[in-house]
């Protein structure tokens, strides 16, 4: 059984027991979180598709913790002008573990 959910403007394919990282959510580490923006659920060959979301479908997750991703280096250069600028960015994330999928 798997589901496709939407959170943080992105879509994720999740299964029971899967650990994955999403955009930063306001939730305490160790708490339960119910994601209700479920786009699709597939179980035993039967697929349910929402328009845009499935009514009454939720994905229960456990919040494992929060962190910051790898640093991305942004480098701007204009040739022959002695111009260069180097900056970086680290994206915050929340790590989740899927407990169950209800359709």
Any overview of this molecule?
The chain is an all-beta fold. It has one domain (2-102). The chain is 0% helix and 65% strand. Strand 8 and strand 9 (83-89) form a beta hairpin. The radius of gyration is 19 Å and the shape is elongated. The model has no long low-confidence stretch (mean pLDDT 96).
Please render the helix and strand layout as text.
Layout: E1 2-7, E2 10-15, E3 19-23, E4 32-35, E5 38-43, E6 46-49, E7 58-68, E8 72-78, E9 83-89, E10 92-102
Antiparallel strand pairs: 1-2, 1-5, 3-10, 4-7, 5-6, 7-10, 8-9
How far apart, in Å, are the first and last alpha carbons?
A: 10 Å
Number of strands: 10
How much β-strand is present in the residues? Answer: over 45%
Shape field: elongated
Counting H and I runs of at least 4 residues, what is the number of helices?
Answer: 0
The structural domain count equals 1
How much helicity do the residues have?
Answer: under 10%
Task: Report the major sheet.
Answer: 4 strands, antiparallel
**Which ranges are low-confidence, i.e. pLDDT below 50, for 5 or more consecutive residues?**
none
Oligomer: single chain
């Amino acid at each position: 059984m798997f589901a496709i959910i939407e959170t943080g403007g992105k879509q994720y394919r999740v299964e029971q027991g899967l650990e994955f990282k999403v955009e930063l959510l306001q939730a305490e580490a160790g708490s339960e979180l119910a994601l209700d923006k479920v786009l699709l659920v597939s179980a035993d060959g039967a697929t349910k598709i929402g328009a845009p979301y499935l009514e009454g479908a939720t994905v229960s997750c456990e919040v494992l913790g929060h962190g910051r991703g790898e640093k991305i280096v942004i480098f701007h250069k204009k040739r022959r002008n002695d111009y260069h600028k180097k900056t970086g960015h680290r994206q915050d994330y929340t790590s989740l573990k899927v407990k169950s999928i209800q359709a």
